[in-house]
Design a protein that fits this description.
Length: 347
């Protein structure tokens, strides 16, 4: 957004979306291989070491190739804002994640309600911080930009859907169906290739012609893929094969590709250049927050329908049923996203 002129951003975001798709291919495969190899007897733990070469490469290449962009004046670190964000997210997510195991205690509901109060205090504080020294953690004026506010809402809800899907999908394949990590990783390759292809195509060819209808088509396409997946998992049960999952995964991947790259462009399209950094940070934060919310909700929409202490013969069927139930929620999330997208710019 800061480096390229507006007429070039379509190509740039198209390439960005394709790279996201390639990452979605390589990530699960590399993680599966590291798990299978069991390096130094550490089982799955070496997956965290992936961040080291990636981080070093980011520092080296970023310092060389990323264009410098700065705010008109130096900003001060908003430590109070950081503390309020962390406290609010912790109060919201911890009870969601641990509530089922602890029997949904009263303090969990009180804590989640308190998170709303903390986020309200955050907004009030950020307003005062803006008026006092102009260096808030969250630039609230961005939310007056309709496309940004709508895009942030879509990004958050989209993150919830993805957070639910990717975790329950993995649990379904590896525990419910008893597949190895490598087989589960390979099963996702058609999905990732579809994401990469559709992302590159959507921004460069489709969005300039059809605008936000492309994103809405993506939400409906992804919902169709989810419903198809539910039907197949019910029809084939524990005997489902990887190749039988390919069709719903490709449909879902195309839908996601039509959303992921143009959505970033749509959110940033009307943001002033001097606030591009703050806006970009918010996009990433709400996406991660949505993912975390989705992961927290897995305890409700997935494990909430699985009985405790199942005998081994019932684990597979129970995970298949829970998978179908959770995917129903993912389809509902896609419908909500479709409606939210009406607030995005038509072009």
């Amino acid at each position: 957004h800061a480096t390229f002129p507006a007429h070039e951003r379509g190509k740039v975001f198209g390439l960005f979306g394709a790279i996201v798709g390639l990452g979605a291919v390589s990530g699960p495969l590399l993680g599966a291989l590291l798990t299978e190899w069991n390096l130094f007897g550490l089982e799955w733990r070496p997956i965290f070491l992936i961040n080291l070469p990636v981080g070093i490469a980011g520092l080296v290449l970023g310092s060389r190739f990323i264009t410098e962009s700065k705010a008109p004046k130096a900003l001060r670190l908003d430590l109070v804002g950081v503390a309020l964000v962390v406290a609010g997210l912790l109060m919201l997510l911890y009870p969601l994640t641990q509530g089922r195991e602890l029997g949904w205690p009263l303090w969990g509901y009180v804590t989640m309600g308190g998170a709303v109060v903390v986020f309200g205090a955050l907004v009030a504080y950020e307003r005062r911080k803006t008026a006092r020294d102009g260096s808030p953690l969250i630039e609230l004026s961005l939310f007056r930009v309709k496309s940004f506010a709508a895009g942030i809402a879509v990004q958050t809800v989209f993150g919830v859907g993805l957070g639910i899907f990717f975790l329950v999908w993995t649990l379904y394949m590896q525990i419910g169906l008893g597949w190895t990590a490598l087989r589960a990783g390979l099963t996702g390759v058609p999905f990732s290739i579809a994401v990469s292809t559709a992302a590159g195509l959507s921004v460069q060819k489709l969005v300039p012609r059809f605008g936000r209808k492309v994103l809405q088509a993506g939400a409906l396409t992804m919902a169709a893929g989810v419903l198809l997946y539910i039907w197949e998992s019910e029809r084939y049960g524990l005997g489902i094969a990887s190749w039988q999952m390919a069709l719903p995964l490709v449909v879902m991947g195309v839908g996601m590709g039509l959303i992921v790259a143009p959505l970033t462009d749509a959110v940033l399209s009307e943001v002033p250049r001097e606030h591009a950094g703050s806006a970009s940070g918010l996009i990433n934060t709400v996406q991660q927050m949505g993912n975390a919310l989705g992961l927290g909700l897995v305890s409700v929409v997935f494990y909430g329908v699985i009985g405790d202490r199942l005998p081994p013969t019932e684990v597979g069927p129970a995970f298949v049923d829970a998978f179908q139930h959770a995917l129903g929620w993912v389809a509902a999330v896609m419908a909500v996203i479709f409606l939210l997208m009406f607030a995005l710019p038509k072009r």
